[in-house]
Amino acid sequence: MNERQNVLRFEKVSPGGLRVTIVVPGLSAGGTEHVVNLVANHWKALGHTVTIITFEVPDAISYYPLHPAISIVRLGVPPGRMSKLGSAAAVGLRILRLRSALQRSRPDFVLSFLTRTNVMTLLASLGMPAPVVVSERNNPAVQPFGKIWKWLQSRLYPRAFGLVTMTQGALDYFPPAMRRRGWVIANAVDLPPDWVNRRKNNTLTAVGRLTHQKGFDLLLKAFALVAPKHPDWKLVIWGEGDDRKSLEAQRDALGLQARVEMPGVTARPGLWVETADVFVLSSRYEGWGIVLLEAMAVELPVVSFECEWGPGTMITNGDDGILVPCENVDALALALDAMLGDQTQREAMGAKAALSARKYLPERILAEWDGVLLSAVDRQGQKV
Length: 384
Fold this sequence. Notes:
six-stranded parallel beta sheet, single chain, seven-stranded parallel beta sheet, 15% strand, 2 domains, alpha/beta, 13 strands, Rossmann fold, 14 helices
């Protein structure tokens, strides 16, 4: 169903617009946050009343620009390291405040993102009439979130109206009853329209939170193997996270201080594409890997671990990018060596990558999110 047909269905279901509430831990830089930004702005443009509830402190600032008419409710109970008792108390407080915020927003539809938040949203919304759809944004089979959360997920997810994942592999992890009420919706590629090409500085680029999942420790090892062969290339890792100190120490121990930069988060979303010449994804696992798709969309040649899930869906190996076995440092080094040393291959793969990325344009992906909303509202018989 295309976007125009969905708009007509929206008008038929509710001429005055629906009240939509989206729950997400925060609105900082990240793939999930970017999706929330796209979907919220889209639904607001269609005439719906959109509220976003986060656990952030009240003065937090959204990394991605949101329509000024979107209401943002920050509950002031952000995640953080604390004792087991303190953590349990914080979770209880989040659920209480979330329930109150949900009641105040009077939603016709609730959309929640990320496992722990999904569990808390389902608990907080018990007894409320609005359908709740939860969205998993990572690989549920390997993402670490604790036995208690996993048990709660198994008990509460069946209460949700439906489930959205980004890949079929992730959806297949869940029981058949959940899959029957599931949607697979890939991330949309959405880059700043005013970005300026400042490339041709021989920059190998990686992007992501500085965490174990993203595998930047593996990337540093691989780059150390090829750096002597390509003395005119440097590696830039964009992002921030808990592993910064350990990654900097590893970089220095490998003698790569002058060859590897870690400048943090870009001042504006997506600006890393301006200076990248080759993109590499070194994740141990992914929900999708939106930065890989963004790189392909701007004609960057890409090298990626074939981690579960995402890269194998986006890349046709040897055609519009290179895939190597996950966590295989030697294979990653060989692929990087081949890519950095062959400009003709880089140009050919970059051009093909841009063609492949067209399947994920925002209008196509947002129409699928419209379908989720409409399915829930139609089934519930909701009217505004």
